[in-house]
Write a structure and sequence with these properties.
Order of helices and strands: HHH
Largest sheet: none
Number of strands: 0
Structural class: mainly alpha
Low-confidence stretches: none
């Protein structure tokens, strides 16, 4: 455990940020999972709606620096591509 006041504060700040980052990442994974479930059930309208929600969550995570903006863009692109490919196939 740290003895210096500033080090103790850094530990508190890091705990808060870690908790926030975990929450945001968890929400992101849940949103992606729900999108994929809708896609697996061939509910394309629901999947499109959930893709918009995933986009919102990805952008929020990127703005808060939880994930890199390029990662957010890449994930969204791949999910949209998968939706388009699955919808065209059916």
């Amino acid at each position: 455990m740290a003895n210096i006041k500033s080090a103790m504060k850094r530990i508190r700040v890091i705990r808060k940020k870690t908790a926030r980052n975990k929450m945001i990442k968890s929400q992101l994974r849940t949103a992606i999972r729900r999108f994929e479930e809708a896609l697996d059930r061939n509910q394309f309208d629901a999947a499109r709606e959930r893709l918009r929600f995933v986009d919102k969550k990805l952008n929020q995570a990127a703005v808060k620096n939880v994930i890199h903006r390029n990662l957010a863009s890449r994930k969204l692109s791949r999910l949209a591509k998968r939706l388009h490919k699955t919808a065209q196939g059916s």
